[in-house]
Amino acid sequence: MARKKQYNEEEVIKKAMGLFWRNGYEATSVRMLEKEMGINQFSIYSSFKNKQGVFLESIKNYKKEINGIKEILRQSNNGVLGIKQYFYNFLEFSTEGHIRKGCLVTNSVNEIKDDADPEVMEELKKFANEIRELFVSNLKQDDKKDESKIECQADFLMNNLLGLSIASKVFHQNQLENIIEVTFKNL
Amino acid sequence: MARKKQYNEEEVIKKAMGLFWRNGYEATSVRMLEKEMGINQFSIYSSFKNKQGVFLESIKNYKKEINGIKEILRQSNNGVLGIKQYFYNFLEFSTEGHIRKGCLVTNSVNEIKDDADPEVMEELKKFANEIRELFVSNLKQDDKKDESKIECQADFLMNNLLGLSIASKVFHQNQLENIIEVTFKNL
DNA sequence: AATAAAACTAAGCAAGTGCTTAGATTGAAA
DNA sequence: TTTCAATCTAAGCACTTGCTTAGTTTTATT
């Protein structure tokens, strides 16, 4: 007794995610989302409540895609080397054609004002910590490291991952590879 | 035979810089600049041409303030240790009250779209490379390091500096200190 | 005191923002 | 085949954006 949706919500979110990733949150207008997602504003608002809703859903989708990479590492079970591989994957992942997009989460952390959108910020912090925990569990796979050293190294690795997202916009490919090599040299 | 300006351009730019730093480029409107700088829109446009002009001038001012720190290090002449000190200074510098603002340049690199504002982007890249060169010259103060190793380490250090700017918004103070310690542990 | 150029104020412009709503279209159940 | 709620389109809402302009005030020089 009703009409069927003419679009698939997951499909249109993927497109929205791409736009947010390339463009940033604020710089992406609902009109642009309309075009990119290929659906009318009304549909956007009825499916995702508002622009923030589209963004939160985009972050969820991003998580899913990242989880794909994470899973590979978790299974490989080779500690620090696994993390290093993750860094290289990340470098590829954050590049589209010749455009370096960085990491959607890092970009957003930097853009979104803590107090202006606490809900989104909370989501982003959670995400960053999930990756950090992944690093911790991988570091534990290598023997003879005490707990506190592992925590420090995880922070250090996160810092370099966050940095790469920005560095990728300013530095050349070979510099980015240098960075990864030096980062893992003494771990 | 003309009226005198009722404001000092350097003074109002300092205020503008603070606002851009806290708020980001896009999120700062000319109306907000009016209030913060304490002058009328007309004056803003006649002194600095447009919003981008105010921003470029703000970056120059930021450079000046950073140069203050840089000079201390240059004179101290103690290589890697000098850079480490710079990192700690940066951490303080990027904090105002309890609010972590990160680095104005890093924030901007992340926000400004390469092709949308190439002029600003060029300025930011130059700035990043100036700091990198400072690192290179400090690294050379320590003996027995070959050229290529120094270049790699400079990239690595820049990556950690860029990272800190974002990490400071997501992690706690002690984690930030951990990061610096691990970064310099094996240099 | 008269002049005129620079600096000021404040109103206003077109275009863009996030979001809503009135009305036409669809399509599965009655 | 009729019904009617979900889905669509497109126009429009109030508000903000960067920037301009008409008109007033100031002030060093004549």
Helix and strand topology:
Two copies of one chain form a homodimer.
Chain A: H1 9-23, H2 30-37, H3 41-48, H4 51-76, H5 79-93, E1 95-96, E2 99-100, H6 104-111, H7 118-141, H8 147-170, H9 173-185
Antiparallel strand pairs in A: 1-2
Helix pairs in contact in A: 1-2, 1-4, 4-5, 4-7, 5-7, 5-9, 6-7, 7-8, 8-9
Chain A binds a DNA duplex (30 and 30 nucleotides) through α3.
Task: Give the tags.
homodimer, two-stranded antiparallel ribbon, HTH_TetR (chains A, B), 9 helices, DNA binding (chains A, B), 187 residues, DNA-binding, transcription regulation (chains A, B), 2 strands, Tetracycline Repressor, domain 2, Homeodomain-like_sf (chains A, B), mainly alpha, 75% helix
Task: Write up what this structure looks like.
- Chains A, B: Keywords: DNA-binding, Transcription, Transcription regulation.
- Chains A, B: This is Transcriptional regulator, TetR family.
- Chains A, B: GO terms for molecular function: DNA binding.
- The structure is a homodimer of 187-residue chains.
- Chain A is an all-alpha fold and 187 residues long.
- Chain A has a domain of 126 residues: Tetracycline Repressor, domain 2 (Orthogonal Bundle), CATH 1.10.357.
- Chain A is built from nine helices and two strands; from the N terminus they run H-H-H-H-H-E-E-H-H-H-H.
- In chain A, strands 1-2 form a two-stranded antiparallel sheet.
- In chain A, helix 6 packs across helix 7.
- The longest helix of chain A is centred in the middle third of the chain and has 26 residues.
- Chain A is elongated and about 65 Å long.
- The mean pLDDT of chain A is 89.
- Chain A binds a DNA duplex (30 and 30 nucleotides) through helix 3.
